Amino acid sequence: MLTSRWIAGPESRSPGPLVAALTDFRMRRLLDLPGIVRHGRSLSRHWPELPGAVGMWLWADVPGRRVGSLSVWRREEDLHGFVRLREHVAIMRAYRHRGTLRSRTWEVEHLDRAELLRALR
Fold first, then answer.
1. CA 61 – CA 66 distance, rounded (Å)
2. Is residue 28 within 8 Å of residue 96, measured between CB atoms?
3. pLDDT of residue 40
4. Rounded Cα–Cα distance for residues 108 and 85 (Å)
5. What is the pLDDT of residue 30?
6. So what's the pLDDT on residue 43?
7. In whole angstroms, what is the distance from residue 117 CA to residue 97 CA?
8. Among 28, 55, 34, which residue's Cα sits nearest to residue 44?
9. Rounded Cα gap, residues 64 and 119, in angstroms
10. Measured between alpha carbons, how far is 8 from 47 in angstroms, rounded to an integer?
11. What is the pLDDT of residue 109?
12. pLDDT, averaged in runs of 10, over the chain (121 residues)
């Protein structure tokens, strides 16, 4: 599994509790991977300015045709604000019929990056 570097958000020093969110998109065709990665990286450039964003990783499991993100937010409302961003909505509309999306959120007491990365395994 490949992971990006940790991308800190404007709330990177926020104390807990925090909200973690894991997305897992399993694409039907590997041919969609370049476009998905390009759009995901483009969206991640907004990360340092997103209200409530603590930090995130992008990840990919190429043999498994899976990509996603693991993000940390100050509050669940901040996560919902991101999900409603025009750019995010456009990407989801463009790719939602090209695979299956699973996601989950959970509360963490404090930011422990090593512990969070275990959620990807």
1. 5
2. no
3. 82
4. 24
5. 92
6. 83
7. 28
8. 55
9. 16
10. 7
11. 96
12. 92 94 95 89 85 94 94 97 91 91 96 91 79
* Residue from 117, 14, 13 nearest 75 by CA: 14
Neighbours of 26 (CB within 10 A): 15
3-state secondary structure of 92: helix
Please give the Cα distance from 73 to 53 (Å, whole number): 5
Amino acid at 35: G
- Which one, of 87, 80, 55, lies nearest residue 70 by Cα? 55
Look up residue 24 and give its two tokens.
């897992």
CA distances from 9 to 12, 41, 56, 66 (A): 5, 15, 8, 24
State the number of CA atoms in the 13 A half-sphere of 23 facing the CB.
19
Beta carbons of 29 and 84 less than 8 angstroms apart:
no
Q: Nearest to residue 101, comparing CAs of 48, 41, 40, 17?
A: 40
Is the separation of the CB atoms in 97 and 26 below 8 Å? no
